[in-house]
Amino acid sequence: MNISIIGPGRAGGAIAIAATAAGHRITSIDGRNADAVAYLASIVDVEPATPDLRIIAVSDDAIGEVAERVAREGGTTPTVHVSGAVQTLVLGPIAATGVQVGSLHPLQTLPDPERGAARLDGAWMAVTADEPLRSMLHDFAASLGCHPFDLDDDVKPLYHAGAAAAANFTLTTLDLALALFEAAGVPFEAARPLVEAIVAHAFELGPAGALTGPVARGDAATVATQIEAIRRQVPQAESLFVDLARSTAKLAGTADVIEEALQ
Predict the structure, then answer these.
(1) CA–CA separation, 89 and 133 (whole Å)
(2) What domains appear along the chain, each with residue ranges and CATH number?
(3) Which pLDDT tens digit goes with each residue over 106-139?
(4) Phi–psi pair at 5, nearest 5 degrees
(5) How far apart are CA 162 and CA 151, in angstroms?
(6) d(CA 241, CA 247)
(7) Which H or E element spans position 81?
(8) pTM for the whole thing?
């Protein structure tokens, strides 16, 4: 497949590298950052040709501006953006010219083009498009080693909130654990096997089924002891710990038992 990339950053670069490795041809790389364009062009072959697919991989607030420019330039190339939160309506100027539009969102963290390309293998990829573009995007995602799935346009903000919760809120919780371990003189690395096992159990049993520990058991006395220790030694962590314990108790069905310990 011939692919044109607009936006040579983390997502656009990762897709370009992975696409090249999968045997696709990059026909052009465009973007406002000339250095980023030049860098990506130095690590993937760019062979000018008529593209089969145009991928807009710019920041969410810049998609509309790019769509207006692409629409003015004309052409018949199906066009997608890679935002997980923005609906395809933002590509309205392009759709108004009769060109099919959609979106393709990799559900993966892409820290830079090279590492992002490697992490696409095995990642899930959301496809929002009607036929025939839908089938083209499914095939393209599969060629990168991704698992494509359909995502309705109207639920994209909710889906993206779920992605943010899965990724960033997990890190907030781990940062809390880091603070408590450090205060106890325990290396944070010691938690890795526990965290990896819990995450694996969550996908095997569901989050509620994977719960463990005193909150899940309804052991209010132990929870109270934990909170008292945090209050004395890491007071800045108390509020977040209590909030998370309260939410965990609701999930576990032990809220009535645990609530007294959270006061």
Answers:
(1) 16
(2) 2-151 (3.40.50.720), 158-262 (1.10.1040.20)
(3) 999 999 999 999 999 999 999 999 999 999 999 9
(4) -110, 125
(5) 13
(6) 10
(7) strand 79-81
(8) 0.89
